[in-house]
């Protein structure tokens, strides 16, 4: 028996050590990942009782080194009471406990290889260790013709169910938990074998949790690339244990400017065949991205290919005109290429100045000399028209956005997912709290919310177009705060407001996402930078708004009329 650790990387569950107990006759290994050395006695006691019952034989002696975790009075008294002989090695002679020491050396080496070949982070060392031990007990060693498992238990184990560590796994979702349009399986990573049931241990990256299931299929040919630091994030960093189907797509700079529908020879022929058969199909606008070589780009005119049923392809310089003609809606923030060439250019310039002023007030960046070996990420302006319920323009909004597709995973960002309140929870609160219990409600908007959140990584950005410092034109922006467009901005903002709400004595519900309560009198729902407040009285709502306004620049919208482009 031997203890190995502490390891510099904390494993899932907070483990920093592992205890290996080896049956001398069969060489069967039992592993216990542990957090503290004080847990050694408890695990040995459990193992001793389990082994004696399974083998119907008593433990005669145990051999360890002179570590204090094995030699303290309580441990020794326990051994004496049961008549178990304690064998100790001489000082600085670990080879006298060679069976356990050799296995620990082999196990640590195996962990390195398994993590490197699978692409998993070092936080999965305990899972790799348990998986290695499981397989170790089921293969022959040295000149033995029987496996440790067979020598220990008396029957030959099966190896048909063994799978490659780190391979892609698809865990079936039980029909009791599946909704109408849910996927039948969740994609995960095989990290071991179930400890107390028959099945496998699957790590679900999106939900950031381990599940044990036997209803799983594998793709053993699909394993993460070695040393892909961002492929599977560290499980022990700030985690949010919720489900997410969001996909964050990164794209190269060559794919970011033109919008078009790629046309291959095959797709053209299929379109020509379908045009004659589907003449009555309702017209639908489809926008897709297509990589355009830099040398073929035109900086003066931008065209958009719009697919319809009457005419297969139309080419418009002004997509807004097309949408207006055909009574179609479009996202105004996407098509801002010529905003500064319109009659409203002065209003857009004022909006840009307002944004820069907020950035300066919150000290979003510092101008520093351009680093010699650091990547400089670009930025751009995005323009949006804010309208009221009647469609009247109330504000011209300009936002400086980082070109996040230039970020490198593992260097510029790590964790990216952030939770939001489910819309079904919002409906339920209005139904129960407002309609039935007659609570008051109000909607708040936090201005430039992301700019409150601090960044953990070092990121350099070019100075924004139109606002380059004339005295320092060669310098770049070293970001201090989470600018819009960064992959991790939403997550950092969530932790910022979560910390503020906790300091204000709000309690987050564990059963759902982004729902906070205060003394059963106030319920706060959070959807990124939108807040919906429910309280028993108007006074409570005013008090909460007053407290939040000391930390954030709030815009009080009054009673909730419209949220997330949906009317309440």
TrEMBL record:
The UniProt keyword set, sorted, is: DNA integration, DNA recombination, DNA-directed DNA polymerase, Endonuclease, Hydrolase, Magnesium, Metal-binding, Multifunctional enzyme, Nuclease, Nucleotidyltransferase, RNA-directed DNA polymerase, Transferase
Q: Which Gene3D superfamilies match?
A: Methyl-cpg-binding Protein 2, Chain A (3.30.890.10), Ribonuclease H-like superfamily/Ribonuclease H (3.30.420.10)
User: What species was this sequence derived from?
Assistant: Araneus ventricosus
Residues of the Integrase catalytic domain = 1-156
Annotated GO CC locations: DNA polymerase complex
Return the PROSITE patterns for the record: INTEGRASE
GO MF annotation list: DNA-directed DNA polymerase activity; endonuclease activity; hydrolase activity; metal ion binding; nucleic acid binding; RNA-directed DNA polymerase activity
Q: What is this protein called?
A: Retrovirus-related Pol polyprotein from transposon TNT 1-94
The record's Gene Ontology biological-process terms are: DNA integration; DNA recombination
Question: Which InterPro entries has this protein been placed in?
Answer: DNA/RNA_pol_sf (IPR043502), Integrase_cat-core (IPR001584), Retrotran_Ty1/copia-like (IPR039537), RNaseH-like_sf (IPR012337), RNaseH_sf (IPR036397), RVT_2 (IPR013103), SH3_retrovirus (IPR057670)
Q: Where is this region: Disordered?
A: 242-287
